[in-house]
Amino acid sequence: MKAESGAEETQALEREGYIGSFMRVGTVVSYVSTSEIAADNAQRAAKVQVDRIRTVAAGGNPGH
Question: How far, in Å, CA of 14 to CA of 19, rounded?
Fold first, then answer.
């Protein structure tokens, strides 16, 4: 599965309603697991995770 998350590296897999995305943002490796949602929503979840990691790396609070 092709995925765009904004991370330096992304690898995603799709199987029977499940989508998992492994992403590398700097030195952080993140995994987002989704099930029973559309691929574009899974991609959006991965992008949110990347944004949260970058916010924390910059010293910010990802909840605000």
Answer: 4
Residues 6+ apart with CB under 8 A from 39: 1, 14, 19
In the 8-state DSSP scheme, what is residue 62? Answer: T
Would you list the domain boundaries of the chain? 9-57
Rounded-to-integer distance, Cα 51 and Cα 64, Å: 12
Backbone φ and ψ of 49, nearest 5°: -60, -45
Query: pTM of the prediction?
Result: 0.86
Q: How far apart are CA 58 and CA 1, in angstroms?
A: 30
pLDDT tens for 36-46 read: 999 999 999 99
